[in-house]
Amino acid sequence: MNFTKEEIAKTIDHTFLNPDGRMADIEKLCEEAAEYGFASVAIAPDFVEYAAKKLAGTGVEIDGTVGFPLGYNTTAAKVFEAREEIELGATELDMVVNIVAVKDHNWNKVKDDIQQVAEVCKDITFKVIFETCYLTENEIRKLAEICLEIKEVDYIKTSTGFGPEGATAENVKIMKEVVGDQKKVKAAGGVRTLADYKKMIEAGASRIGSSSGLKIIAELDE
Q1: What three-state secondary structure class fits 187?
Q2: Exposed, middle or buried: residue 222 (CB in 10 Å: 0-12, 13-18, 19+)?
Q3: What value does the mean pLDDT take over residues 69-74?
Q4: Domain span holding position 169
Q5: In CATH, what number is assigned to the domain containing residue 127?
Q6: Model pTM greater than 0.90?
Q7: What is the mean pLDDT of the chain?
Q8: Among residues 215, 214, 209, 216, which one has the least CA distance to residue 42?
Q9: Hey, which residues are catalytic here?
Q10: pLDDT, position 131
Q11: pLDDT value, residue 222
């Protein structure tokens, strides 16, 4: 499977979520995204307004986070966070599910949590983060089935990158097997090389979340 730099860039959410970052890092991230044509910048909520102004007119999406990274914020807090980020300029949002509710198999609560945020995100791209490293295969499948029932969900996503393990090809395949062509899959967490990238795309991912996008593209010249 061969890719051009442009093709790769268009599938990558250029990510900076380091807890010890500075505004200079966000500025650099935005400049790189515009220069290379990345799909989006994936950033924390506090930087959404800045990025939206910085990248206006470039075609780069503004990808904020909701309930990040642990997911057990109240649903009301997630709804508020999503609504505020959209008002500040977010065009995509990645929300972490309530992982505790998933582990308790409290599926009604899980679905309601996703559904309420999804309704706020009906006019933008909405991604649901599973954090697969904490889940069994059956839980991953059930969660994917729930997301199939919610029309506003555009992507199901493997990971935050903050768990003990990120995306695996096996989990991407499981997620894609459940949703087929009805939803897309985003692989994130630990995708640092061109080999990693190809593995996730071949497994069924349509979007990649990575802070190593420049390195992945540079490997095409090696």
Answers
A1: strand
A2: exposed
A3: 96
A4: 5-221
A5: 3.20.20.70
A6: yes
A7: 97
A8: 209
A9: 94, 157, 186
A10: 98
A11: 82
